[in-house]
Amino acid sequence: xxxxDIRDAFPILKLQENGQPLVYLDSGATxxxxxxxxxxxxxxxxxxxxxxxxxxxxxxxxxxxxxxxARKKVQHFLNAQSTKEIVxxxxxxxxxxxxxxxxxxxxxxxxxEVLITEMEHHSNIVxxxxxxxxxxxxxxxxxxxxxxxxxxxxxxxxxxxxxKLVSVVHMSNALGxxxxxxxxxxxxxxxxxxxxxxxxxxxxHMAVDVQSLDCDFYAxxxxxxxxxxxxxxxxxxxxxxxxxxxxxxxxxxIYSVTFDKTEYNELPYKFEAGTPHIAGxxxxxxxxxxxLEIGLEKIAEYENQLxxxxxxxxxxxxxxxxxxQAANKGGVISFVIDGVHPHDxxxxxDQDGIAVxxxxxxxxxxxxxxxxxxxxxxxxxxxNNSEDIDRLIGSIKEAxxxxx
Length: 404
Fold this sequence. Notes:
By secondary structure, the chain is α/β, with parallel strands linked by helices. The protein folds into two domains: about 5-25 and about 295-404, Aspartate Aminotransferase, domain 1; about 40-295, Type I PLP-dependent aspartate aminotransferase-like (Major domain) (Aspartate Aminotransferase, domain 2, 3-Layer(aba) Sandwich). Helices cover about 40% and strands about 15% of the residues. The chain has 14 helices and 17 strands. A hairpin with a 2-residue loop joins strand 1 and strand 2. The chain is globular and about 70 Å long.
């Protein structure tokens, strides 16, 4: 599929906002959905709607085949060893909470250290704070510099025999920084620690090979990679998942139940209590197909070109400061403008049909580091192009003229 044809695959991009063609630059919050994904959801509800795993009739068997087929697609997408390592969850947030409340409770004790970075999303901070308050672990924070980068030297210095888990973002949603997670994982393992990677922002923009990374856990959300909301994945090494207790109790995660004892289901179903988001799983599979049809390396290369072009043009605007200029970045640009509140800017830009995010991006410690209340964030997807960038630049200049 050519990038010049990709926009046609997204029906919503034909909309107008305030009388202007929509320019969607908030893929970091959620991506738009291609027709392939929309049609997969529609097909399931029209022609396959039944519960999975339980029915022996044809409709249920077809639904189960489609749902489990999606799990197989995700396994290959991540290069996991087995579908047993692919747990369907609601999203990255639930995946991290699952690890905290199962592996964490079983393997951590008071005084043990969980190492995170200053650039983490709240969903990779708060679950560990909850666990800290519950059992007395300690959070250790790797600082970032004013480029929005973490130093491997600082990281290595903070690893110790007390470090039991490293839980870090692969790509920052607020800065675009891509962390050297393969090297970080190796160093963590040398120190005797396990590694969880928050891949919510990374998976839409680059190829991820969990066996090459050698991470113990990897989490991501479908809705940021052109799939449905409410579905995501926790990858975990089979041996670790096998040792972990269930996260929730109920249907489908059991093998047998008496009032005296419950025997749990095999992996991955031990962690998938209740009726799953069947349509969401199928839609995630369609999103994987969509990305692979384009090509993961081509996506990374194309979005990097957009990043370079947008960065060069934004830097020519007087008073504009880009927050986060790491040497290795993904397609995210956060910025502030002297004398202008980000919310005012984003509101005016919406009148031009430009959808950008203005907030702390669920990364308040990042905002505190740079001493700003919020930033304006333009985050790219495969459907964006140079014309979108030019309209972004034009809208910023118009808004600045009105506000300054």
